[in-house]
Structures are given as structure tokens and as C-alpha cells.
Amino acid sequence: xxxxxxxxxxxxxxxxxxxxxxxxxxxxxxxxxxxxxxxxxxxxxxxxxxxxxxxxxxxxxxxxxxxxxxxxxxxxxxxxxxxxxxxxxxxxxxxxxxxxxxxxxxxxxxxxxxxxxxxxxxxxxxxxxxxxxxxxxxxxxxxxxxxxxxxxxxxxxxxxxxxxxxxxxxxxxxxxxxxxxxxxxxxxxxxxxxxxxxxxxxxxxxxxxxxxxxxxxxxxxxxxxxxxxxxxxxxxxxxxxxxxxxxxxxxxxxxx
Length: 256
Known about the structure:
- The protein is an alpha+beta fold.
- The protein is 26% helix and 27% strand.
- It has five helices and ten strands; from the N terminus they run E-E-E-E-H-E-E-E-E-H-H-H-H-E-E.
- Strands 1, 2, 3, 4, 5, 6, 7 and 8 form an eight-stranded mixed beta sheet that branches. Strands 9-10 form a two-stranded antiparallel ribbon.
- A hairpin with a 7-residue loop joins strand 9 and strand 10.
- Helix 2 crosses helix 3 (159-176).
- The model is unreliable at 147-151 (pLDDT under 50).
């Protein structure tokens, strides 16, 4: 067996990019930062950064999540309650097109993070501003750019594709898992959970059918022992996420 020669292979860097999704004002939003340095200076991008020499991929993604949002990744299999600054974090996909970064060969391992309604972000690192942008706004602009033949996405690098993949992952996973509760506070009403589904899927759902489905699915929701009037109207029962990770039967996304 011939000896391994590292110099025979070109060097490349590894980054982590974050698709951070939350629901704000009944709309699915993602965190974007305006780049303060080249390349793509002045363009909006997903938060992220280079993996350090002493980090694994999950550790790098968790560090970037803390730095960009103040949120800590939590294990979805851990018993409740979810920490107040906790966020669901999972690996999404790997992106390695040779020309995706003009500086050098860079492979990005994207991660998806989900959390309840979050406050206004603070920019850090090489970003000079940050904001929560409605997903439909960003993806709609990309669709328009593609229709015009320009091909360039709204976001820097290939982040438009990464965002689209992250949104589709969230939309599909809430069909068969309890992931939608990651967008909710520790205690929530069925109406608040329904609005999460409506924001992520971009459709209106029948309140009575939704209530019947989620309360009739074993292990999906458990009563929290209280009520709230924070949504107005009569007091609504509070629930918290149950122990089920898979929904049977699934909550199928309506066709639009």
C-alpha cells in the first residue's frame, strides 16, 4: 500500500452555516446578517463561521448559535422542561461546490435551529447588522431573480439554497414529528401551536380539526394544568410537549 501524501491533495476549509428559524408576528422568519467584509460585502447571509481546529461540527454549530443568538442547543431526547434559552439544533446537509466561496475551497456543513419567538438580534463577528427576515420574502425574491434569468440568489454564497433546504426540512418534519413544539414556549395553547403550523406551512388550518388531531395523538401534548387569556377571548387550556417524537398518524401538510 503506497504511503499517504497530504501534499497531493489541495487544502480546504470547513464552515458551519445556521438556518435559524422562528415565528414572529405569525410569519416564519430566519436570521440573516449583513456581511461587513469581502466577499459579498454588504450582502445578507446566513450566520455561521469557520470550524476551529479543536472543534467537531456539532460543537462549532452550537458555538455559533450562542454567539449569534444567545441560544443554547438542547437534546430533544432530554426530559422536559426545555431551558428558557434552549433551541433545537440538528445537522441539515453538506454543501461543497468548488466555486461556492471565491476565497478558497470551502465545504459548509449547514445546521437547522428552531426556537420560539426571539428578540431582535445583535450583529457580531464580521457582520455589521442583523435582522429577522420573513422566509417568504427571501425565497420569493430568489424565485423572481431566477425567473429574470439572473440566477444569483438574494443571499451571499449559496445561502439561498441552504435556506430553502432548511425550510423544507422544517415543513416536512412537523408532519411526522413533534418538532413544531420547538417553536413554542414551554407552555402553549393549541391555538398557538396551530399558528406555528400555519406559519411554517404557509396555509390556514381548520381550528376544530387541528385541535382534534393534536389532542388525540398519543404523547404529542400533555396538559400543563393551567389556562391563559394572552391570545384574547375565553381562557384557553395550556399544554406542553409530550414524550412522543414521532406522530402516528402524521399531520399531513395540506396541498396548496
